[in-house]
Amino acid sequence: MQILEIFLGILTAMGGFVEVGELTFMLNAGSKFDYRLLWVVALGTIGIMVYGEIAGRIAAVRGQPVFNVVRERAGIRLGLLTLVSATLVCLLTCAAEIGGIALLWQLMSGLPYRLLIALALAFLLVVVWCLPFKWIERVFGLFGLFMVVFMVVVWMAHPDWGAVAAGFVPTLPEGPTDQRLLQSYYAVALLSSVMLPYETYFYASGGIEDKWKAKDVPMNRVIVIIGFLLGGALAGSIMIVGKSLLGPLQIEAQLPGTAAIVVAMKIGRVGMWCALTGMFFAFAGAAIETALSCAYNIAQFFGWPYGKKRAPRTASRFALTWIAAFVLAALIVLTGVDPIRVVEYSIVFSVVILPLTYFPLMALSRDREVMGEHVNGVLANTLGWFYFVLVCIVAAAAIPLLILTHGGEG
Amino acid sequence: MSTRKPRGELDIYRRVLDHVLLDADGLPCGIVDEIEAEGGLGEPLAIVTLLVGPAAWTRRLPAFFAIVAHLLAGSRIVRVPWSEVAEIGEQIRLCSSAVELGLGVADRRAGRWLAHLPLSEEHPE
């Protein structure tokens, strides 16, 4: 039974790895910089494994999700700052995902964009209200696996595998100053898009929902390592597709539908429908995870009853918070703001808040008094502190790079 | 890792403040937002009451943010006597139910409103 649980967990982690921002950043990074930023995808994938493993282990051993730990270790002042920033970033990401769904539906139906935003909002509200947690996790994660079609496109595009391998060797940006700044901006954005903090909030809260215990620590480790590794491979494939098919035509993906058209160029109508299906479930899954993350984080921080496994009547503030998150996110995109622009900002601001949630988790996971035999080992400590320093540096560079590159326009 | 309520010295910052409260039924019913203690000069402090609610945590914020948070979150405060604490661990377990202690009032009020919607009573497993 646990093998099936692990298998489904891995596939769900993989299928839920890519969202609208990551998709467009990966395609454009491949189109603009060939394979030169593949090493950032690898770096970010190991980072999310480290961060996810620690958060999952704390959830299993202590029964504490991320924002319980933030409140306990960072206190009310720094904790509240972290909570407000994380909620705003989750809201922006949710808005972008709802916009992404509406853009996909518009591509398929031709109906007005704003009407489709309203329909997407209604769809998401009904799904989260009616479906149990396990179903939401599995349906959106597993159908998101249709995105594997991008791996098929890579295989059919016959890339130069030597050049692909060379892309995993870290290199400094080259060329004139504006190009170097732009490449640095993309490196920051790609790292952030792979290490999006909501994934960890949701993952740890899922562990609490599934009542993980200390015996589930090895399962947590296997799921984050294999699931996120496969998710990282999928993200890398999208970058290779961007290099192989968009780069030669000097196309920059401004809409998520561009990704489906790229697939259609290589494997026709069936491939396009697979890509559209995968993108729809991936975007909807991310919208649900971000809205629920808003509610999980606030409920955990203030000690409210929470959880999709509780009836809305008994976790009422939790339920009202995720409903409000969906409605606010839909209102953001209803203003007419470009969802891709929204997600670009949310991704850059995500990395700014990463150290705030990362530090309390590191502080707790290395405390033998509270973690007992499940305290960080040498590897977890070394990687954990390495990534903490890295995300601090990246967080400091993110806003200046956003300004200097005019939001990635160059 | 739960432990029974210790009788001797206790690190209240590490083990009590900002910890989740669970009522007798295991339902989360707030966070220890502030602690009231008593004890004379040179004497050991003894915890008297745990304070729960916006009026308790907003006063730990810098003045400007305290005013804003007070306007947004309200001024409710609930005093939980220390004698109500049954166990101290990752969470603090209380002897009585949230209803008896006056905790979780906002949730019950919102719950009555949500009860008008279909499936709101369902346990979606």
Can you describe this structure?
The complex is a heterodimer of chains A (410) and B (125). By secondary structure, chain A is an all-alpha fold. Helix content of chain A is 79%, strand content 0%. Chain A has helices at residues 2-15, 20-33, 38-62, 66-109, 113-130, 133-143, 149-157, 161-166, 177-194, 197-209, 217-246, 257-302, 316-334, 339-365, 368-371, 378-404. The N and C termini of chain A lie far apart (52 Å). Chain A is globular, with a radius of gyration of 20 Å. In chain A, helix 3 packs antiparallel against helix 11 (217-246). Chain A has one domain: Amino acid/polyamine transporter I, CATH 1.20.1740. Chain B has 125 residues and is of the alpha+beta class. Chain B has one domain (3-114): SH3 type barrels (Roll). The longest helix of chain B is centred in the middle third of the chain and has 11 residues, at 63-73. The interface between A and B is large, with 38 and 37 residues.
